[in-house]
Amino acid sequence: MDKNTRKLRNQDINPCIEESDASQKCMDAYNYDKNMCSAYFQRYKNCRKYWHNIMVQRRRDGVKPDMPTAAERHEQLGAIGGKPY
């Protein structure tokens, strides 16, 4: 795996791996008909937006690292009762 691929597959860096994989599986299942997978794309987009806002807020507050680790994210999602997206 090249450096960029490893970075995208790293749970601590990319919080939306699950959503990304689901949209890719949908594309594979429906022969790359994007219209059939719009719900998966929207879920991925909402995930990225949600975690981007968290990252921006942490940066403003001076919290390092900017993106919470996978364990911290799991804890945060559990505290709010699941994924808000």
UniProtKB/TrEMBL annotation:
Keywords: Disulfide bond, Mitochondrion
Superkingdom per UniProt: Eukaryota
GO CC terms: mitochondrial intermembrane space
Keyword Disulfide bond tagged: yes
Annotated compartments: Mitochondrion intermembrane space
Keyword Nucleotidyltransferase in annotation: no
BP terms from Gene Ontology: mitochondrial respiratory chain complex assembly
InterPro entries referenced in this protein's UniProt entry, alphabetically: COX23 (IPR051040), Cys_alpha_HP_mot_SF (IPR009069)
Family statement: Belongs to the CHCHD7 family.
The protein's name: Coiled-coil-helix-coiled-coil-helix domain-containing protein 7
